[in-house]
Write a structure and sequence with these properties.
About 40% of the residues lie in helices and about 25% in strands. It has 25 helices and 33 strands. Strands 8-7-6-11-10-9 form a 6-stranded antiparallel beta sheet, with helices on both faces. The protein has a 5-stranded antiparallel beta sheet with strand order 2-1-5-4-3, sandwiched between helices. Strand 19 and strand 20 form a beta hairpin. The protein is elongated. The relative contact order is 0.04. The N terminus and C terminus are likely disordered.
Length: about 950
């Protein structure tokens, strides 16, 4: 129940009522949302509500008793004091109005724009001034934002560049929000934050990029697309943004996204040393929205401008290029034709738009053209077709039409861009190129040549099928893999040479590339390759491409080597002829005088034995000359007959066995019933002897076997590559095999060269194999050799089978001497001792000899008395006049007189000339005196007749 102080029900004690009224007033003040202060007449704050605490940053207890001027900005204090004093002098009751343009001061020192509503309040302690504070920041900020945006809009209306407009946005934002720093950044596709405009201190420590890993508020916006408020103190200590911001005394930052046409373009940020005000987010968002609009408008204008420029460039380009350029809608109706269309067709482009251009297409090409178009439209593939278009003069030319479609989001074509290229000449040129390539290929094939290219930049080789065939490169090896197999084929000794030659060509030391080298084929055979190429260079002179051909020159090289060897043999033959002439004269003088001396000595005379030695030495010298002549000038006219090669080889080996080392065994085997061959038995015996001796020398002092195997073979066309210089036919083959050390590839090609030998000094002349080859050629045969180190050597002799008739020499055999009689002999030789010898020796036989060393003097003497002589004997080779010329002169003066020619060697053509002149006999040099007497006796015998002595190469 109520206490005594409450009084009677419905009645209130005045004191109680006043207290209750003051409590109600206080509750009312606290419940007001706006900041509110009660101020005494002396300007001291009595009461402050919670809203005032939040606005000013002071607690209500701190505000109570504080002069109100402490929460008024200095610039507004004087005006506020005047208003308060006026109000206090005549304190009204109730509201008296609102005062604007005042700035409150927060505890942090921030000036806050406010409006103040004043009212007089009666309390128990006396009248108080009620002050209601209304925050005008949002309104002022909005006004300032509107003003700033109007300034930017006004600048935009002057066509200010977009970068300058964006700079204005940054500066206006910084000014509006009183921020220390303001940045605008663009987010690139990689997430980089790139600064495009700034105000205040620049981020000099990180340049124009903000690292993606930093704690920047712009980075946060780039990641989330949403506004971000950042407190730099909260960032890790190693963050470069934190260190820079705190160095500049910045503590807060606020960033908002900038969107352009719904895509995140970048961000706008402000930073401050104090708190960034709450209204900053809305203001910054408005500026970001405006920046996005400016950027979007700029992009749209740029796109429109670029589109116009692109269309203009397209039209200019379309009118410039030589093709017929066009664009068409999805249905194929042309909506643009370039100037070339009108020039080509002779019809204005306006008259050919739509589908009317089809009227210019050849009627026969319409179906294929429409099928190609339907396939492109329905298959969503590029359009490609060839058809003929009528020219202004009525002629049709073929065009290659190509087009691509611009498609919408569904993939449907909305526009086609195409061009038609005149391919009439190109097709003709392509046909000509194909024909030229076919001709080139035919020429390469006919010449056995292969084509190759070397790309210097890529270091790649390309070869054609001829090169692959020659180098035995399988088809499954691609062009990219062909370099290795090509290099493996090249002889290892030639690889460095090829690299050096190519390097010199590429570096310009040599104008072109040319190399001759060997390749090794699967069967181990060597082939010689002549490779040539031309170097193509770029504008700077650097080698770009080498194009070349190569040719198998093995046959040509072997032919050249044979020609060179033939030339060597010819030179050696000339030398041998000279040796035979001079040396045979000396030998005949020695032998003849020995014979004369021996004839004057009685039997048993002590001088007979040394004279016999001298005579044998002279004969050995004559044999040596015969050996030289045998290989350098094989005698085609030597007596030949049908030979049993097997028996002849067997007999020759029987004679050789005692002369060879005992540890070397000779074996001979032959097939039964071998056909005969035509040849000179002495020459064949010499071939066998030389091969056996060569094999024995190769085996040396080690035990070994030399085998002779004889059979008959038929050589067909496919066999001829293995037997060079042979022809198809039947042959008797003699295979000579030894188990000596063999020969390598560097020695094998030179074994038949008379100027080459592997023998050391005193081990032989090295002429044996040369004689073998020469004698085989004289028999129309062939000799081949195969050898490898460590496998011995194999010689194969191919003797052509005879036809069955005996082949005799050009002269018949000497007739038996009938009755010897003395004669008058004109003897001519340029060797004085030889003339003196015959004068003495023939004189002893009763002949009257007139000797001359000068053939011209001899001819003059004969001219004085042609009947003074019965026979003429003359040397073949003499200075001033040859024996044949002398014989021609003598026979012209006295036809039929016997003429004999003495020579160490007479070539077949000179032998034939001698026969044509009527020369009776060919006397070999040297010949024993007895033989000369015998021939003279035969010539001078009753009935006369010809007497021919076998040439030196036919004598064993």
């Amino acid at each position: 129940m109520p206490g005594p102080a409450d009084g009677t029900l419905g009645q209130t004690d005045p004191t109680t009522a006043l207290a209750r009224s003051e409590r109600g007033l206080r509750q009312l003040i606290d419940s007001v949302r706006d900041p509110m202060l009660l101020i005494a007449h002396d300007g001291v704050i009595v009461v402050a509500n919670p809203a005032a605490e939040e606005l000013l940053g002071w607690a209500a207890s701190d505000l109570a008793g504080m002069p109100v001027e402490d929460v008024i900005a200095p610039a507004s204090r004087a005006e506020h004091r005047a208003r308060r004093e006026k109000f206090a002098a005549d304190l009204p009751t109730g509201p008296v109005g609102v005062v604007g343009g005042v700035f409150a001061l927060s505890r942090s020192g921030r000036e806050i724009p406010v409006s103040i509503a004043l009212a007089g309040i009666e309390t128990a302690d006396g009248p108080l001034m009620g002050v209601t504070i209304m925050d005008a920041s949002a309104r002022l900020s909005r006004e300032r934002q509107d003003a700033a945006l109007r300034r930017i809009a006004a600048a935009a209306g002057t066509e200010l560049p977009v970068d300058r407009l964006l700079t204005m946005v940054v500066e206006e934002a910084a000014s509006l929000l009183t921020a220390d720093k303001s940045l605008m950044a663009r987010f690139d596709p990689d997430g980089e934050v790139v600064i495009v405009g700034s105000h205040g201190d620049h981020l000099t420590s990180v340049g124009d990029h903000i690292p993606r890993g930093s704690g920047s508020s712009l980075v946060a916006v780039a990641r989330t697309g949403a506004p971000a408020r950042l407190f730099y103190d909260d960032l890790p200590e190693d963050d470069p943004i934190r260190e820079l911001a705190l160095t500049q005394d910045h503590h807060q930052a606020l960033a908002v996204p900038i969107s352009v046409h719904t895509r995140l373009w970048g961000g706008l940020m402000v930073a401050a040393r104090d708190d960034v005000p709450p209204e900053a987010a809305d203001a910054l968002t408005r500026f970001a929205e405006y920046a996005g609009a400016v950027i979007g408008a700029s992009e749209s204008r740029a796109v429109e401008r670029a589109l116009r420029e692109s269309e203009e460039r397209f039209r200019l380009l379309a009118d410039f290029i030589p093709q017929l350029v066009w664009t068409a809608d999805a249905d194929g109706a042309y909506d643009f034709l370039n100037r070339r269309w009108a020039e080509y067709t002779g019809v204005a482009t306006e008259e050919q738009l739509g589908l009317r251009w089809l009227d210019r297409v050849h009627p026969d090409d319409h179906p294929a053209l429409m099928r190609a178009w339907d396939a492109a439209v329905n298959g969503r593939a590029p359009f490609a077709a060839e058809f003929r278009i009528r020219r202004h003069d009525g002629l049709y030319r073929r065009f290659d039409a190509r087009a691509v479609a611009m498609r919408d989001d569904t993939g449907a074509a909305v526009k086609w861009f195409g061009s038609n290229t005149d391919v009439e000449e190109a097709r003709a040129a392509a046909a000509a190129v194909r024909a030229s390539e076919a001709q080139l290929r035919a020429a390469l094939d006919a010449g056995g040549m292969g084509a190759w290219t070397y790309d210097a930049a890529r270091r790649e080789v390309r070869v054609d099928r001829n090169v692959r065939t020659l180098f035995e490169i399988p088809d499954d090896i691609t062009d990219a893999e062909v370099q290795g197999p090509l290099d493996e084929r090249i002889h290892r000794d030639d690889r460095l040479l090829i690299r050096e030659v190519m390097t010199r060509a590429l570096e310009g030391v040599d104008a072109d590339y040319r190399a001759e080298y060997r390749i090794v084929r699967d069967d181990g055979s060597l082939r010689w390759i002549d490779s040539r190429g031309q170097v193509a260079r770029d504008a700077d002179g650097a080698a770009r491409m080498v194009t070349g051909v190569l040719l198998d020159v093995t046959a040509a090289r072997e032919a050249g080597e044979r020609l060179l060897r033939s030339q060597k043999l010819e030179a050696l033959g000339t030398l041998a002829g000279g040796i035979a002439h001079d040396f045979n004269n000396l030998l005949q003088v020695v032998g003849g005088n020995v014979g004369l001396a021996r004839d004057t000595l009685a039997a048993g005379h002590p001088a007979l034995e040394p004279l016999g030695t001298v005579e044998r030495a002279a004969q050995r010298g004559a044999d040596l000359v015969d050996r030289i002549l045998a290989f350098s000038r094989p005698e085609d006219g030597s007596p030949r007959d049908h030979l049993d090669i097997a028996a002849l080889v067997d007999d020759t080996l029987d004679l050789l066995r005692p002369t060879l080392p005992a540890m070397i065994e000779l074996r001979c085997s032959s097939a039964e019933r071998l056909p005969p061959v035509v040849g000179d038995p002495a020459a064949v015996a010499q071939i066998v002897t030389n091969l056996a001796a060569n094999a024995a020398q190769a085996i040396g002092r080690s035990p070994g076997v030399v085998r002779f195997e004889i059979d008959a073979v038929d050589l067909r066309a496919e066999d001829l590559p293995a037997v060079p210089d042979a022809r198809e036919g039947r042959y008797v083959r003699v295979v000579v095999t030894d188990d000596g050390p063999g020969m390598d590839a560097s020695v094998l090609p030179r074994i038949f060269d008379p100027f080459f030998t592997t023998k050391g000094p005193g081990a032989g002349t090295g002429l044996g194999l040369s004689i073998v080859q020469s004698l085989m050629r004289a028999h129309a045969g062939v000799v081949t050799v195969h050898s490898r180190p460590g496998t011995g050597t194999v010689f194969q002799l191919y003797f052509p089978v005879g036809s069955g008739a005996v082949i005799a020499g050009p002269e018949g055999a000497a007739r038996p001497v009938a009755t010897a009689r003395a004669g008058r002999v004109l003897f001519v030789d340029d060797e004085p001792d030889l003339v003196a010898l015959h004068e003495r020796s023939l004189g002893r036989a009763g002949h009257v000899v007139s000797g001359y060393t000068d053939p011209r003097s001899a001819l003059a003497r004969f001219r004085e008395g042609p009947d003074d002589f019965d026979v003429v004997v003359t040397d073949l080779s003499m200075p001033g006049m040859s024996g044949l010329e002398l014989a021609r002169g003598i026979l012209a003066l006295r036809p039929g007189i016997p003429v004999l020619i003495a020579t160490g060697y007479i070539p077949p053509e000179e032998r034939a000339e001698a026969e044509a002149l009527g020369v009776r006999a060919i006397l070999p040099k040297p010949s024993p005196i007895a033989r000369v007497r015998e021939v003279l006796a035969g010539v001078l015998a009753d009935g006369g007749g010809r007497d021919t002595v076998p040439p030196p190469s036919a004598r064993s």
